[in-house]
Amino acid sequence: MDEESPVFAIAVAAELAEMHPQTLRQYDRLGLVVPGRTRGGSRRYSMRDVAQLREIARLGSEGVSLEGIRRVLELENENRALRDRVRQLERALADQLISRPGARVFAATTTGAAVPLRAGMRPQRNTAVVLYRPER
């Protein structure tokens, strides 16, 4: 189970978020926090949903309108998705570089000369810049 697992009934989520259950229903209708649903149609909230409900309460207490809150949540969700995608791409690139046959690694000396490094070796100076250049 993770923070995305929809496990809390509306009464529990409302208590965790310190809100009235009717407020959660209204936010669902407005699309601010859309919980998961059971086969029977009951709402199920995740820990992430509860955190968003608390964020909505905080922003509302600071005077942000519901439309402003909706936009803030939308941007936060987009930002989270982009960060996740960057991590996926970084892992895929690292996997590809590691498994690529004939990959060569170079270090730049302080004079700018490129010197090849054997696999697993480090440059002698900790001020050197390491470059990757695939073999053609």
CATH architecture of the largest domain: Orthogonal Bundle
Count of DSSP-assigned helices: 4
Q: How many distinct domains?
A: 2
Strand order in space, largest sheet: 4-3-5
Strand residue content: 5-15%
Low-confidence stretches: none
State the CATH topology of the largest domain.
Answer: Multidrug-efflux Transporter Regulator, Chain: A, Domain 2
> Largest sheet, described in full?
3 strands, antiparallel
Pfam family, one: MerR_1
InterPro entries: DNA-bd_dom_put_sf, MerR-type_HTH_dom, MerR_fam
Keywords: Coiled coil, DNA-binding
GO molecular function, one term: DNA binding
Short description:
The protein has 136 residues and is α+β, with helices and mostly antiparallel strands. The protein is built from four helices and five strands, in the order H-H-E-E-H-H-E-E-E. The strands form two sheets. The chain has a three-stranded antiparallel beta sheet, with no helix packed on it.
Question: How are the secondary structure elements laid out?
Answer:
Elements: H1 10-17, H2 21-30, E1 36-37, E2 43-44, H3 47-61, H4 66-99, E3 103-108, E4 114-117, E5 129-134
Antiparallel strand pairs: 1-2, 3-4, 3-5
Helix pairs in contact: 1-2, 1-3
Describe this structure in words.
This protein is α+β, with helices and mostly antiparallel strands and 136 residues long. The chain folds into two domains: 10-97, Multidrug-efflux Transporter Regulator, Chain: A, Domain 2 (Orthogonal Bundle); 101-134, no CATH class. The protein contains four helices and five strands. It has helices at 10-17, 21-30, 47-61, 66-99, and strands at residues 36-37, 43-44, 103-108, 114-117, 129-134. The chain has a three-stranded antiparallel β-sheet, with no helix packed on it. A two-stranded antiparallel ribbon has the order 1-2. β3 (103-108) and β4 (114-117) form a beta hairpin. α1 (10-17) packs across α2 (21-30) and α1 (10-17) packs across α3. The two termini are 46 Å apart.
